[in-house]
Amino acid sequence: MAKKKPEQTIRSDAELNRELLHSMLLQRRFEERCAEAYALGKIGGFCHLYIGQEAVSTGSLSVLRPDDYIITTYRDHGQALARGMNPRAVMAELFGRVDGCAHGKGGSMHMFDKSLNFLGGHGIVGAHVPLGTGVGFAIKYRGGDQVCICFMGESVVNTGAFHEALNMAGLWKLPVVYVIENNRYGMGTALERASAIHDIYERGASYNIPRAVCDGQDVFAVRAAMQECVDRARTESLPTLLEIRTYRFMGHSMSDAVSGTYRSKAELDEYMKRDPIMLLRMHMQEQGELTEDDLHKLDDAIKATVQDAWDFADASPEPPLEALFENVLVDTTSDAAAEAVAAD
Amino acid sequence: MPVITYRDALNQALREEMQRDDRVFLMGEEVAVYQGAYKVSKGLLQEFGEMRVVDTPITELGFAGVGVGAAMVGLRPIIEFMTWNFAVLALDQVLNSAAKLLYMSGGQFNVPIVFRGPNGAALQLSAQHSQSFESWLAHIPGLKVVTPGTPYDAKGLLKAAIRDDNPVCFLEGEMLYNTKGEVPEEEYVIPIGKADLKREGDDCTIVTNGKMALVAMQVADQLAKDGIHVDVVDLRTVRPMDVDAIKASVEKTNRCVVLEEGWELAGIGAQVVDYVQRECFDLLDAPVYRVHQADVPMPYAKNLERAAKPDAAKTIAAVRKVMYLE
What we know:
The structure holds two protein chains of two kinds.
Chain A: H1 14-39, H2 54-61, E1 69-72, H3 77-83, H4 87-94, E2 118-121, H5 128-142, E3 148-153, H6 160-172, E4 176-182, E5 185-186, E6 189-190, E7 211-215, H7 219-236, E8 240-245, H8 265-272, H9 276-286, H10 292-315, H11 334-342
Parallel strand pairs in A: 1-2, 1-3, 3-4, 4-8, 7-8
Antiparallel strand pairs in A: 5-6
Chain B: E1 3-5, H1 6-20, E2 24-28, H2 44-48, E3 53-55, H3 60-72, E4 76-80, H4 84-87, H5 91-98, H6 101-104, E5 114-118, H7 134-138, E6 144-146, H8 151-163, E7 168-172, E8 180-182, E9 196-199, E10 204-208, H9 212-225, E11 230-234, E12 237-239, H10 243-253, E13 256-259, H11 268-279, E14 289-291, H12 302-308, H13 312-322
Parallel strand pairs in B: 2-3, 2-4, 4-5, 5-7, 6-7, 10-11, 10-13, 13-14
Antiparallel strand pairs in B: 1-8, 6-12, 9-11
């Protein structure tokens, strides 16, 4: 059972590290502009930022194959970008425009990209975990060697859906990695005030599922832990419950103060000393892989990409009114569907 | 034409569709080794194996979600609920996942899934096991809701449901499984969303669905003895609802009774009446009456249960009322 904390890290080459830094910094700069757009009223509804957790998405998804599957929660911008979704499509979706990935039907909480096997951000806490199990079931049904990564916050572990989904994954030995992004708070309720067990990965024992825990601020630690889980799923068709300990630097959503009633400024400041982007940058600088000048160039290029996404979203039209009634159902009568299937 | 039970008609539909498409699988409680709580899946485990006929733990929310996830990536699950009463635990997956994913993803992810099982009251099962869910489910855009009342309809509509690229809620009846009817040997599929005129007459229309179609046909036969001839419009599908069939009948009869198994408030009948008052206002010779379950949780005692359920006598009384015969 992989219960030891994986302190070891994969010391990767400079090129890979640069890709990781690019991925994490893109998420950071993108979401900083999301906060700005929200304040300007360009983004509406709920908007949950990922800032502080970028090593989790980047590290996890960096070990996947293109044909693997990802399903996640409503805090989904970071993972969408880390999987390679076009920042233009993500920003346009946030702006509620026709060129968004869901043509303005989903918004912040519902990013989807079928071409990347990105199965969406889901808005009901815990409800997508059985879906992840179902994707694992489908992989096994077809005899494939893909893996499904199912991200969730730590508050999910107290839902019935989580329990039911992990029990079936353990029972049927499905190739799913359940990733708990433990950012310490379910909205404003601390883990210790919500869960009888504080080492959440131990819950895997209830379902006879291998389990592990790692540092979510260190992208190398995330990669190492995730590689082990993905290998286990791919070669042995076994699930893993992986707890990644991280911290969100922003409020639960844009309507929540960054610090206040449930956590102190001092606590936040302490965690921000372990900003995942800063840690990677410092490592790269120590290794001589990145100069100040390199960093500025990279940052400028990313800021330009984000500005381009903003401009694209801003110029994209609102969805046409006739779209209101589109995609409620697959547009076919059962007769036509029957004929289509018969023609297969 | 062979006469078979509703149960066997469903079994034939499952077997034929699993034979023709290996993406189709059946999952639920007791569907495999036990051969189905109501034996609808009898023999399927032996024919298709344990990967395609899958026993689950008692975990409705979980396995309904497993079905949705599998459907998102290209399989065609049939999720059996031992009863729709237990499916309430899974309603989040039906409502928030299956019904909404196509819309929320801007058309990227459709969910070709069938949720099926017995609906409504049987006999003396008391309040928690005796509920009709078609109006709850029919409320939700993104679903189709099918309620076959006869073996012929059950087979043809289940095959259509399995081939449909959308989520379909398929509501059967515990009291229907043993009923018999003609089912042809040759293959057929009944389009979802089409009503069926089960009896014809000029005096009054009875709009109904599901198990109540049998009651409506009994009513029609009984009334015919008194020289009253009614149309029985069996909706068969309540979402989408075949309002053209309702209108065509009411245009002919000018009178309408709606017979449904569930409760009154916000029931299927309320929707039918809303349509009839708007589209047939000038055609009506009498107000539309509704027959439904009494507005109480289902009681256990035989006499109370009988009093609570819609039945032939209550329906006949309603028809006579709209005909101003009493």
